[in-house]
Design brief:
heterodimer, A: 263 residues, alpha/beta, Rossmann fold, 4-stranded parallel β-sheet, 11 helices, 8 strands, globular, B: 446 residues, mainly alpha, Fumarate Reductase Iron-sulfur Protein, Chain B, domain 2, 17 helices, 58% helix, 0% strand
Chain lengths: 263, 446
């Protein structure tokens, strides 16, 4: 991949006395996880391609504290939150976009009471805004007519009521959108939330991600579309476990848009 | 003659006793709920009222499961509307009158006719409910936490409703027969009072019976029906059936924020701000009143550490199990069941309540954590909010799970080992994995 990504930092913007249109909050998974980094890059490619003026915090970004809070460590959560808020406020950030629903939920809902008040949107919502403003064009391309199912991330869907933005983007790709047995407000968790990503599951009959993958496999999709790096990992593992990796891809919505456009 | 008034006096005594006993139960209920911590749920009154109208009165969340939902709406409507008739029954009982609302004429006929049709529909629905619970293998009614008392309780409620509906229809049928036979006190010069679209078909049962026998049947049905209702009213406190009253306040006081927003602990905020303030003097004496702001403990290990809304919810829960049916952990065979979290909370609260009733101190031998809810259950939760979304009456089992996790981590440092590793990583390098924060932008160059 010859990437040549333009990823300006807030520090460099400040040095030039500029303010970007939006801050891209990359998140820990988006920064470090090999699979999630591809999502980050796909998103940046799109932003670069249509000249969206954005910047990242880079090395000044730190975990939002979501897993700590949901594990029960309120103290560590608030330490992370306040540290991040200090940085964000110092840069006078107004609008934040992120490809991680956990970062999205935490910054949007739990930072305001701690002094961090920003407009926070999920990357699928941002892309839809760009689409509506005519800045982004999305066409069918390679996914046209293909059977796609969307897995709702809990922290985008149920937690914040956004079910349509990712689906609208998929419809723009002219896919055949099929819904799993549990979807939207009844969407079944991938098994990673609430800090489960970082621990072994309790004893049971099976793993949650396998259960969810079975629901996805039932509708025979060519792609399971996701909107969360953790869901992506869980569903990818699930598809491998079912030995379906040759038939079913797990892709973030933003990767599909980038792919369709051959970015 | 005092003897003429005997039934009325007897009825008044029964009625007053029932109301007093009910009031006593309500006061225990209020006392137990107020053992919880404070939480602000009195804001946005307009929004709360609308939500209560939509979700509790309008049953909007019931129909997501259409069969159970529609059957429930029939029983609910029957319950609410037939209660108008109970008002007449009570007035007749106190004054010794016969169908005192009869003067409403055609309106009265429509009312009684509606009550009868509803009574029949309720009867049918309740029979289907019983079959669903006892014959059809519906998973959410077979869970471990329903074994024993909860299952019996659910069935008793159904039997109660069958008996009440049968008595109501028998009473009407005997009354109609008495009116047809022109019995004194029953028959009216204006003709038949009330219309009886269902109970008229029961008339053949009374063939050849004397007026005296019919009066005995009618009076017996009348007495058993109204006394049954009063017993049912007082059974509520001991059963899962309190939701018929508490669903309304519970929805009213339920969370209005986005489900993903978990509350921040103010005491922690103060600490963290102090730590991050470069001007703070680490050796400063604590402020005289500062100590009181810090709660005795973080999170919850027992019911008194929960807030009053969570305790109200424990009494509101009717153990339908829609939460548990949606829970990803439960679906994959883990021990966690959000319904059990609510049932355990109520059982523990009742245990404390019975200590208080006996004038004892609250015994500390038992507590909610470990004695009722195990750590294995708490750690199985993915915080996905499916249980919260599924509850038809606005209960939030997840908030209890979170409060208890908070206690485990902040008071006992008892998180699973892997989680401790992740948290140590966050502390050291601001990511749950052991990667250096200085490498956070490396992806852009790869």
């Amino acid at each position: 991949m010859s990437d040549n990504l333009k990823v300006p930092t807030m520090a460099s913007y400040l040095a030039e006395g500029k303010q970007p249109e939006v801050l891209f909050w990359v998140g820990c998974a988006g920064s470090f996880d090999d699979r999630a980094k591809k999502i980050t890059k796909a998103f940046v490619k799109i932003l670069n391609n249509i000249n969206v003026d954005f910047a990242v915090l880079g090395t000044e970004e730190g975990c939002t504290g979501d897993p700590a809070k949901r594990a029960g460590n309120e103290f560590l959560f608030q330490m992370q939150a306040m540290t991040n808020i200090e940085v964000l406020n110092a840069y006078e950030v107004k609008k934040i976009v992120t490809a991680c629903p956990h970062c999205f939920n935490t910054i949007k809902n739990e930072y305001p009471a701690l002094g961090g008040k920003y407009e926070v949107i999920h990357h699928t919502q941002f892309l839809k805004q760009l689409l509506n403003e005519g800045r982004l064009k999305v066409e069918g391309g390679k996914y046209k007519g293909k059977k796609i199912t969307f897995h709702d991330p809990c922290y985008l869907g149920r937690a914040n009521g956004e079910y349509e933005a990712p689906r609208d983007l998929l419809r723009k790709l002219e896919v055949e959108l099929v819904e799993m047995k549990s979807c939207k407000s009844k969407g079944l968790c991938c098994g990673a939330g609430g800090a489960q990503m970082f621990k072994d599951a309790e004893k049971g009959d099976k793993e949650v991600n396998i259960h969810r993958t079975e629901q996805a496999v039932e509708v025979k999709p060519e792609v399971i579309a996701a909107g969360c790096p953790f869901c992506n990992t869980m569903m990818t593992d699930g598809v491998k476990n079912k030995e379906k990796q040759d038939e079913i891809e797990v892709l973030d919505v933003v990767e599909m848009i980038a792919n369709a456009d051959d970015l | 003659m005092i003897l003429d008034y005997l039934p009325q006096i007897l009825f008044l005594i029964v009625l007053i006793a029932a109301i007093l006993f009910f009031a006593k139960n309500v006061s225990s209920l209020k006392r137990n709920i107020s053992l919880g911590r404070e939480v602000e749920r009195n804001d946005q009154k307009n929004k709360r009222f609308k939500k209560m109208m939509r979700v509790a009165l309008g049953q909007s969340k019931m129909v997501t499961r259409p069969i159970a939902g529609i059957l429930h709406i029939i029983v609910y409507l029957g319950f609410v509307i037939i209660n108008i008739e109970v008002l007449e029954i009570i007035i007749d009982g106190v004054l010794g009158t016969h169908r005192i609302f009869g003067f409403l004429g055609p309106v009265y006929n429509v009312l009684i006719g509606t009550f009868e049709i509803l009574a029949l529909l309720v009867l049918l629905s309740v029979i289907i409910f019983w079959l669903r619970r006892n014959v059809m293998n519906i998973k959410r009614f077979l869970a471990n936490e329903l074994k024993g008392w909860p299952k019996n309780d659910a069935n008793y409620i159904l039997y109660f409703e069958v008996v009440l509906m049968v008595l109501f229809l028998t009473m009407n049928a005997a009354d109609l027969e008495l009116q047809l036979q022109g019995a004194q006190h029953y028959a009216s010069e204006a003709g038949i009072v009330g219309s009886f679209p269902v109970s008229q078909y029961m008339l053949p049962l009374f063939d050849g019976m004397s007026i005296d026998t019919l009066i005995i049947i009618e009076r017996t049905a009348w007495w058993f029906h109204i006394v049954g209702i009063l017993i049912f009213l007082n059974y509520l406190y001991y059963s899962k059936h309190l939701h018929i009253l508490l669903a309304f306040p519970n929805v009213y006081f339920s969370n209005l924020d986005a489900m993903g927003k978990f509350k921040n602990l103010d005491a922690v905020t103060k600490e963290v701000k102090l730590m991050m303030d470069p001007n703070a003097d680490p050796f400063a004496e604590p402020e005289a009143d500062g100590e009181e702001d810090i709660p005795e403990k973080f999170g919850a290990s027992d019911v008194q550490d929960l807030n009053w809304f969570q305790l109200l919810s424990a009494y509101t829960c009717t153990e339908c199990g829609r939460c548990t049916a949606e829970c990803p952990a439960n679906q994959t065979g883990k021990k966690l069941s959000p319904r059990k979290i609510m049932m355990d909370t109520r059982d523990r609260l009742e245990e404390i309540g019975s200590d208080l009733n006996k004038g004892k101190e609250i015994t500390s031998d038992n507590q909610l954590l470990d004695n009722y809810i195990t750590r294995e259950e708490l750690w199985a939760c993915t915080t996905c909010n499916a249980c919260v979304d599924a509850c038809p009456v606005g209960i939030d089992p997840l908030s209890i799970i979170m409060d208890m996790r908070q206690y485990l981590v902040m008071e006992q440092s008892a998180a699973p080992v892997e989680l401790n590793n992740a948290m140590t990583n966050i502390e050291n390098n601001a990511a749950p994995w052991p990667y250096n924060q200085q490498d956070r932008l490396n992806w852009a160059k790869e």
